[in-house]
Design a protein that fits this description.
Elements lengths: L1 E10 L7 E11 L4 E5 L6 H9 L6 E6 L2 E2 L5 H4 L3 E4 L13 H9 L7 H4 L2 H12 L18 H12 L6 E5 L7 H18 L3 E4 L3 H6 L3 E6 L2 E6 L1 H6 L2 H9 L14
Parallel strand pairs: 3-8, 3-9, 6-7, 7-8
Antiparallel strand pairs: 1-2, 1-4, 4-5, 9-10
Helix pairs in contact: 6-7
């Protein structure tokens, strides 16, 4: 479903600020894979997601989504293949639009249709059913503006919207990091449910090692733009935070400056 072959990305090349973010990176996700990604700050995790989504271009290599090479496709053209939830709960929704209008936009992602055609009786019935699965009472607030929701509610809504059209690849970029522990636990649980129910191929960046172990069937560790450790499903089932810390400690130059990784 996703093939990354020899991808490299350098920011500000030839300047004093030159920074190599990705180096000859290879990664393959089969359909239904749920891969969690950990690594210290600056490891290239978010750059990887941005490259897949088309937010940034790559210097070398090829990115294929479901057999289609997307290197030359701009971000809006990749929207039909990619769903994404960001770290900031404010980033994935339109605060001045209602819940049902946001859901309509998500449903019509990648299609040239107006908002007025998006909110229909049939779709509204579907929205109620989908929102009920979140168990947050949002199915009774379709006309409420999203800007009035809490951070956890908005992130749960963003997650639902991202998976609404069964994207070829779902990208989760530290999507629980800005939430308090209780709401983070809720969104983490919803993530597992939505991915499993939809059979979504998912790549999730997280700073939280416990979360990285608990979710998904594969885990990768990045450092300085490279994948330095991988665990398949069988190995992942045996992983502990302590074991991951030990693997991280083997990487030259890696540090535990971000204590959230130990959560």
């Amino acid at each position: 479903m996703l093939t990354i072959d020899g991808v490299g990305k350098t920011f500000f090349p030839g300047s004093v600020n030159e920074r190599r973010a990705l180096t000859d990176l290879d990664l393959r996700l089969d359909e239904g894979d749920f891969v969690t990604v950990i690594g210290s700050n600056g490891a290239g995790k978010s750059t990887l997601l941005n490259a897949i989504a088309g937010r940034i271009g790559v210097d070398t290599g090829r990115i294929d989504i479901d057999g289609t090479t997307v290197n030359r496709l701009p971000e809006h053209r990749r929207a039909r293949y990619v769903g994404r939830v960001f770290q900031d709960p404010m980033a994935g929704t339109a605060p001045d639009l209602t819940i049902e209008q946001n859901l309509s936009l998500a449903l019509l992602r990648g299609e040239r249709r107006g908002l007025g055609r998006g909110v229909t009786k049939k779709r509204r019935e579907r929205f109620v059913e989908e929102l009920r699965s979140l168990e947050l009472g949002l199915e009774d607030r379709l006309k409420a503006k999203v800007g009035l929701l809490s951070g956890g509610q908005r992130q749960a809504l963003s997650l639902l919207m991202a998976g609404f059209t069964r994207p070829r690849i779902l990208l989760l970029d530290e999507h629980t990091a800005a939430l308090d522990p209780q709401r983070a636990a809720l969104v983490t649980s919803l993530t597992g449910s939505i991915v499993a129910q939809g059979g979504l191929t998912t790549l999730m960046v997280t700073h939280n090692m416990q979360q990285a172990i608990a979710l998904g069937n594969r885990l990768i560790m990045m450092h300085e733009g490279r994948i330095v450790f991988e665990a398949d499903d069988a190995a992942k089932r045996k992983l502990t935070v302590e074991a991951l810390m030990a693997e991280f400690g083997k990487v030259k130059g890696a540090s535990f400056d971000d204590r959230a990784m130990l959560g």
